[in-house]
C-alpha cells in the first residue's frame, strides 16, 4: 500500500545549482511532519514540489494516489485548490481585501464563495472579531491565522506550512502552533511544516532533517 | 468575489486605471473621428473638388457619313432636365449647356469685321425639373465658378466679350458689335483663363434665335459627385458579366454616370473629363488612405499606451497573482480578472471616446468643410468594439506575463 504522500528520487536543479539530490520521502495520512534544516538545505523546495507549486527535475511525487508529475499546469492548479492548503512564512494576504474577503478568495478559485462559511473558518482560528479588517490593520499573528483560515476553507487533504511562525514572536508562535495542533489532533489534518526552529519542529509528531538537498535524519519528535 | 476584486483593483490603482482608460478613450476618439470623417469625407471633398469645374462633357455624337462630311449635329435643350432623372441624379450638382458656332463679327466703331467663334451660355438661369418643386440652377456659374465677368451678364440684345478678343479688336463695355445682322451692346468682358477669353458670349437663347438653331446645343458641361476610380471602374462595361455591370452601373464612378447620361441625351457622346476625374480620384484615394493610416496609428498608440500601463500593473501585482495561483487559481481564473478589468476599461473608454469623437468630428466638419459631418449610427458600436479590441490586444502580453508567474519563486522573494 502506498503512502498518502510519497516522493521518490526527487532531483531539483535550478540551472547549475541543485536544491534536491534524489530525495525519497513518504507521509502517512493524518501525520504531522516537520521538515527542518538550515537555510538552503532544500526543505522549502521539497514542500513546494509536494504542493505542486514547483515541479521536480526528475523523480516523482504522488498524493493520495495521484501522480503530480503527470499533471499539466491547469490540472495541477485544480488539484492544489482541492487538496492542498498553504500557509507561508510571510503571511501572504491580498492587501486590499479584508480578512473575510481573503478567505473567500480561496473559495472563489475553488468553487463558489460563501461568506458565512468564510466567517466560520475565521472563527475556528479565533479571528471572528477581525472579519472586516485589512491585513495592514492586523498583527503578524492575526495575519497568519487568517492565512490558516484561508488554507482550511476548502477542506484540503493536507496543510503545507512554510515557516508559519518565522516572523512571529514566541507568544504568537505558540498560538499558531496550538492552532495547528488542534487541527491535527481534533480534525486529523495531515500537516507538513517546514521550519528551522527546533522549538517549532518539536510540536510535530515526526521530524525530518535535511542538509544540502538530502534527508539526513527522519525520526519521531521528542514531544 | 470577482466584483470585489475588480472594485478593489480599480480603487487601489486609480492612477493606472485612469491612464489606461485615457489611452483607450483618446485612441477611440481619434480613430472614431477619423472614421467619421472618412465616411463623410468623400462627399465633402468631392463637393469641394467640384470647384475644379465640370468633370463630364456631353457632346453630339457624330459618326458615319455625317461625321466624314463634317455635318453639324446638335443636342436638344429639351433633354437637359433628363440629366436629373438618372440613377445618380442626386450626384449631379451642376450642369450648363452651350451652343458654339462661328459667325461674322463686326465692330461698330471701327468697322472691323472678322469670322469669330461665338458662344451661347446661360447666366443666372434656372430650370424646373420633373417632380421637383425647387428650380435647379443651370447657369454657367454652377459649373464654371471661376468665370469672371467684368460688367454684367448679357441680357437680351447684349454680349460679353472675352478679354483677349476685346484687346485684339479694341472693344470695351458699352460698345456695339454686329452679329448676324443684329446690333449687340457689349455688357462687359469675360475672363476665364481659357479659350472663352477669345469668344463673344451671348445669352444661349438669343444665340439660338439669331442663328436659327432654336433648342439646339453643342455641349453640356456636367459637374457630378463621383466615387474615386478604382481598377474595376476602368473595366470596359461591354466585357462585364451581368452582376459586374450592375455593380458598376450602381456605383457612382464618373464612367457609369457618363453612361447613364448618354442614355438620356439623345444622339449624344458623353465623356468624362479625365484630367479632372482622375485628379479627384487620386486626391480622394490618398486622403482615404491617409485617414485609415492615421486611424490605425491612433489605435496602435492607444493599445501600446494601455499595454505598457497594464504591464506595469501586472509587475506591481506579481505577489498577488502568485498568491492566487498558490490558492488554486488556474490560467482561466487569472485571465478572467485581468480581462474583466480591460473589458470595463474598454467599454468605458469606447463610450467616452465615441462621445469625444462626436464633438471632434463636428468641430472638424464645421472648421474644415464648413458644415457638420453626417454622424453614422454604426460608429457607436464600432467605437465600443474597437475599444474592446484595443483593450484585449493591449492586455494580451501583460496577461501572458501574469500567467507565467511562478508562485514558488515570487512568494519566496516577497518580503
Helix content of chain B: 40-55%
Query: Could you tell me the strand content of chain A as a percent range?
Result: 25-35%
Question: DSSP helix count of chain A?
Answer: 7
Cα(first) to Cα(last) distance of chain B is: 26 Å
Quaternary: heterodimer
Order of helices and strands of chain A: EEEHEEHEHHHEHEHEE
The most extensive interface between chains reads: A-B, 32 and 29 residues
Straight-line distance between termini of chain A: 28 Å
Quick check: average pLDDT of chain A? 88
Q: Count the E strands of chain B.
A: 14
- How are the strands of the biggest sheet of chain A laid out side by side? 6-7-8-3-9-10
The geometry of chain A reads as globular
Low-pLDDT windows of residues of chain A: none
Task: Based on Cα principal axes, name the global outline of chain B.
Answer: elongated
Structural class of chain B: alpha+beta
Q: Write down the CATH topology of chain A.
A: Rossmann fold
Classification by helices and strands of chain A: alpha/beta
CATH architecture of chain A: 3-Layer(aba) Sandwich
Number of structural units classed as domains of chain B: 2
- The gyration radius over C-alpha positions of chain B equals 33 Å
Structural summary, described in words:
The complex is a heterodimer of chains A (223) and B (415). Chain A has helices at 43-50, 73-83, 99-110, 115-124, 140-152, 170-187, 198-201; strands spanning 5-14, 17-27, 32-37, 58-63, 66-67, 84-87, 158-162, 190-195, 206-211, 214-220. With 223 residues, chain A is an alpha/beta fold. Chain A has a single domain (5-220), classed as P-loop containing nucleotide triphosphate hydrolases (Rossmann fold), CATH 3.40.50.300. With 415 residues, chain B is α+β, with helices and mostly antiparallel strands. Chain B folds into 2 domains: 2-47 and 281-413, no CATH class; 55-272, no CATH class. Chain B is 50% helix and 18% strand. A 6-stranded mixed beta barrel of chain B has the order 3-4-11-8-10-9. In chain B, a hairpin with a 2-residue loop joins strand 9 (176-179) and strand 10 (182-191). In chain B, helix 2 packs antiparallel against helix 8 (274-316), helix 2 packs parallel to helix 10 (331-369) and helix 8 runs parallel beside helix 11 (379-403). The longest helix of chain B is centred in the C-terminal third of the chain and has 43 residues, at 274-316. The radius of gyration of chain B is 33 Å and the shape is elongated. The mean pLDDT of chain B is 85. At the A-B interface, helix 1, helix 2 and helix 3 of A face helix 1, helix 9, helix 10 and helix 12 of B.
Amino acid at each position: 500500500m502506498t503512502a498518502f504522500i510519497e516522493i521518490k528520487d526527487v532531483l531539483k536543479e535550478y540551472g547549475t545549482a541543485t536544491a534536491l539530490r534524489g530525495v525519497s520521502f513518504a507521509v502517512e495520512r493524518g501525520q504531522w511532519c516537520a521538515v527542518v534544516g538550515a537555510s538552503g538545505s532544500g526543505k522549502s523546495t521539497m514542500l513546494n514540489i509536494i504542493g505542486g507549486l514547483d515541479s521536480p527535475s526528475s523523480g516523482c511525487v504522488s498524493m493520495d494516489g495521484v501522480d503530480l508529475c503527470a499533471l499539466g499546469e491547469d490540472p495541477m492548479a485544480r488539484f492544489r485548490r482541492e487538496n492542498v492548503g498553504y500557509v507561508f512564512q510571510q503571511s501572504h494576504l491580498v492587501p486590499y481585501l479584508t480578512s473575510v474577503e481573503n478567505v473567500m478568495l480561496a473559495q472563489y478559485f475553488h468553487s463558489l464563495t460563501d461568506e458565512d462559511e468564510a466567517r466560520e473558518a475565521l472563527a475556528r482560528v479565533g479571528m471572528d472579531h477581525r472579519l472586516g479588517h485589512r491585513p495592514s490593520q492586523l498583527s503578524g499573528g492575526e495575519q497568519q491565522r487568517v492565512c490558516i483560515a484561508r488554507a482550511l476553507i476548502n477542506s484540503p487533504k493536507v496543510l503545507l506550512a512554510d515557516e508559519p511562525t518565522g516572523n512571529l514572536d514566541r507568544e504568537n508562535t505558540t498560538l499558531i502552533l496550538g492552532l495547528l495542533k488542534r487541527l491535527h489532533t481534533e480534525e486529523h489534518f495531515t500537516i507538513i511544516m517546514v521550519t528551522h526552529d527546533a522549538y517549532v519542529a518539536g510540536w510535530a509528531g515526526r521530524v525530518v532533517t535535511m542538509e544540502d538537498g538530502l534527508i539526513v535524519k527522519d525520526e519521531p519528535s521528542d514531544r | 468575489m470577482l466584483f470585489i476584486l475588480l472594485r478593489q483593483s480599480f480603487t487601489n490603482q486609480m492612477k493606472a486605471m485612469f491612464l489606461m482608460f485615457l489611452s483607450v478613450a483618446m485612441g477611440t476618439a481619434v480613430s472614431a473621428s477619423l472614421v467619421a470623417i472618412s465616411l463623410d469625407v468623400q462627399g465633402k471633398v468631392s463637393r469641394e473638388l467640384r470647384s475644379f469645374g465640370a468633370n463630364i462633357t456631353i457632346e453630339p455624337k457624330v459618326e458615319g457619313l455625317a461625321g466624314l462630311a463634317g455635318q453639324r449635329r446638335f443636342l436638344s435643350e429639351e433633354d437637359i432636365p433628363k440629366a436629373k432623372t438618372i440613377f445618380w441624379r442626386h450626384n449631379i450638382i451642376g450642369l450648363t449647356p452651350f451652343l458654339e458656332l462661328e459667325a461674322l463679327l463686326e465692330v461698330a466703331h471701327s468697322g472691323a469685321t472678322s469670322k469669330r467663334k461665338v458662344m451661347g451660355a446661360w447666366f443666372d438661369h434656372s430650370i424646373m425639373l420633373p417632380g421637383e418643386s425647387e428650380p435647379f440652377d443651370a447657369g454657367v456659374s454652377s459649373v464654371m465658378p471661376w468665370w469672371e465677368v467684368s460688367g454684367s451678364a448679357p441680357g437680351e440684345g447684349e454680349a460679353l466679350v472675352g478679354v483677349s478678343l476685346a484687346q485684339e479688336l479694341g472693344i470695351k463695355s458699352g460698345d456695339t458689335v454686329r452679329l448676324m445682322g443684329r446690333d449687340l451692346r457689349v455688357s462687359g468682358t469675360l475672363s476665364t483663363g481659357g479659350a472663352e477669353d477669345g469668344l463673344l458670349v451671348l445669352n444661349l437663347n438669343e444665340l439660338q434665335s439669331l442663328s436659327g438653331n432654336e433648342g439646339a446645343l453643342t455641349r453640356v458641361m456636367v459637374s457630378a459627385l463621383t466615387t474615386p476610380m478604382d481598377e474595376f471602374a476602368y473595366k470596359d462595361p461591354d466585357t462585364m458579366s451581368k452582376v459586374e455591370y450592375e455593380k458598376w452601373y450602381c456605383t457612382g464612378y464618373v464612367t457609369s454616370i457618363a453612361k447613364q447620361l448618354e442614355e438620356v441625351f439623345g444622339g449624344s457622346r458623353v465623356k468624362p473629363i479625365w484630367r479632372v476625374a482622375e485628379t479627384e480620384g487620386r486626391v480622394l484615394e490618398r486622403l482615404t488612405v491617409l485617414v485609415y493610416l492615421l486611424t490605425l496609428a491612433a489605435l496602435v498608440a492607444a493599445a501600446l499606451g494601455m499595454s505598457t500601463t497594464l504591464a506595469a500593473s501586472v509587475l506591481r501585482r506579481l505577489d498577488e497573482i502568485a498568491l492566487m495561483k498558490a490558492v488554486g487559481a488556474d490560467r482561466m481564473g487569472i485571465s478572467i480578472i485581468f480581462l474583466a478589468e480591460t473589458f470595463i476599461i474598454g467599454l468605458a473608454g469606447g463610450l467616452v471616446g465615441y462621445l469625444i469623437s462626436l464633438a471632434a468630428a463636428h468641430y472638424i466638419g464645421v472648421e474644415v468643410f464648413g458644415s457638420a459631418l453626417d454622424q453614422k449610427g454604426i460608429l457607436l458600436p464600432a467605437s465600443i468594439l474597437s475599444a474592446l479590441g484595443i483593450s484585449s490586444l493591449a492586455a494580451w502580453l501583460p496577461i501572458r506575463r501574469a500567467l507565467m508567474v511562478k508562485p514558488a519563486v515570487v512568494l519566496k522573494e516577497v518580503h
